[in-house]
Amino acid sequence: QVQLVESGGGSVQAGGSLRVSCAASGRTFSNYDMGWFRQAPGKEREFVAAIRWRDESAYYADSVKGRFTISRDNAKNTVYLQMNSLKPEDTAVYFCAARPGTYIGVLSATAGYGYWGQGTQVTVSS
Questions:
Q1: By the 8 A CB rule, do 94 and 24 touch?
Q2: Contact criterion met (CB below 8 Å) for 36 and 95
Q3: Which residue, 86, 6, 70, 11, is CA-closest to 35?
Q4: Rounded to an integer, what distance in angstroms lies between the CA atom of residue 75 and that of residue 29?
Q5: DSSP 99-118
């Protein structure tokens, strides 16, 4: 079992920055690929960013590329999402998720992510 707890959400004006964190406990964090997803009201959950366990390579949705940065600190069992140049359309509940590093499948798909946090709200006002 892996338990995930997000923190760091909040409200910010457009153009501002926020960093959300996801603390993991349970099994060996470093063996898991980690992802960030978000869900806005009335919309499906969508991929934001992911980072592989084996080489820390990062992947981003086109909508956040160049603005968001995912990183991980295996010593602290924590993954971060630094969000800059925020836009109102970034408003959503942000979820972190974990999947075994041996899982074969695209990182952007929710399938394979067996562990999810409870989410943290990010609100960007214009």
A1: no
A2: yes
A3: 70
A4: 9
A5: EETT--S-TTSSTT--EE--
Instruction: Tell me the CA distances in angstroms from 38 to 11, 23, 55, 82, 104, one per residue in order.
Output: 15, 17, 24, 14, 22
Span 51-98, pLDDT tens digits: 998 889 999 999 999 999 999 998 999 999 999 999 999 999 999 999
Query: How many whole angstroms from its chain centre is CA 29?
Result: 15
**Two tokens, residue 115:** 């562990």
